[in-house]
From TrEMBL:
This is Nuclear transport factor 2 family protein. Residues 11-119 form the SnoaL-like domain. PANTHER family: BLR2505 PROTEIN. It comes from the Bacteria.
Length: 134
């Protein structure tokens, strides 16, 4: 059995996210049940979320409730080393229910275990998130 590096896994995953327009199933299905997601900063969705359900309730659903359309993930670069990779990407075309343009830049540090994401440390535009929630 060939082991896939985090970089290879994330290249495939982000390509599929981009192709599907950020399909919820494509996004959520690879998150491990015991994953840890750290959304950095001081926004309405910032914090450390332990477990897939905590992330869905604390980040994914609040964002989904405020978005008409999720931004498309356009990868700028992926730098990987074993089970960890950094993904810099531009989210374009996101639209808030309040009319906010939710296009923004991201950088996620991602730990991949097998074919599952076990940890994410996310950096993103705090101002855009605040505008989305206002």
């Amino acid at each position: 059995m060939t082991t896939v590096s985090a970089k290879q896994f994330l290249q495939r995953w982000f390509a599929e996210l981009s192709r599907t327009g950020f399909d919820a199933a494509v996004f959520l299905d690879v998150l491990s049940d015991d994953m840890v997601w750290t959304a950095t900063g001081e926004s309405p969705v910032s914090g450390v979320f332990r477990g897939k359900q905590a992330y869905i309730g604390g980040v994914y659903h609040p964002l989904d409730d405020h978005l008409v359309s999720w931004p498309r993930a356009d990868v700028v670069r992926i730098i990987g080393d074993g089970e960890w990779a950094a993904v810099q990407f531009r989210g374009s075309g996101g639209q808030g229910r309040n009319g906010t343009d939710y296009s923004l830049d991201y950088c996620w540090l991602i730990h991949v275990t097998g074919e599952q994401i076990s940890e994410v440390i996310g950096f993103y535009d705090q101002t855009k998130v605040h505008e989305l929630f206002s």
